[in-house]
Design goal:
Elements lengths: L6 H29 L3 H27 L3 H45 L2
């Protein structure tokens, strides 16, 4: 004959299995919530990324507005020409100064002699 099923034992076994399954689900939910990025953490990371992005944009703008090697070479050439011009003017001024000193001495000696 066929033995009858002990429904009380089956119910207890099902309840134990259900409790173990629910404990597993609870552990899974706890683990995923613990490691999930919260909206405040995401907002904080976004604000830090925005700050870094602004900083990089400022640096790029600064680097773009800096003169290049060609422009610096043009300025160096212009400064060299200006220095040569200033040297010529200085030589002319020394000559003019020497001439004025001689005229001054001449006028002093002429006035001193009574002429």
């Amino acid at each position: 004959m066929m033995e009858s099923i002990d429904w009380n034992a089956a119910k207890v076994l099902f309840d134990v299995a259900q409790a173990m399954f629910m404990a597993g689900v609870a552990a899974y939910v706890w683990w995923t919530n613990k490691h999930r990025a919260t909206s405040t953490a995401i907002a904080e990371v976004n604000s830090r990324i925005d700050a870094v992005d602004k900083h990089v944009a400022r640096m790029e703008q600064t680097l773009e507005s800096r003169p290049g090697y060609g422009e610096i070479e043009v300025l160096r050439t212009e400064l060299a020409e200006m220095n040569r011009g200033m040297a010529q003017i200085s030589a002319q001024m020394q000559g003019t100064s020497a001439l004025l000193n001689r005229l001054h001495e001449y006028l002093l000696t002429e006035k001193g002699n009574g002429r």
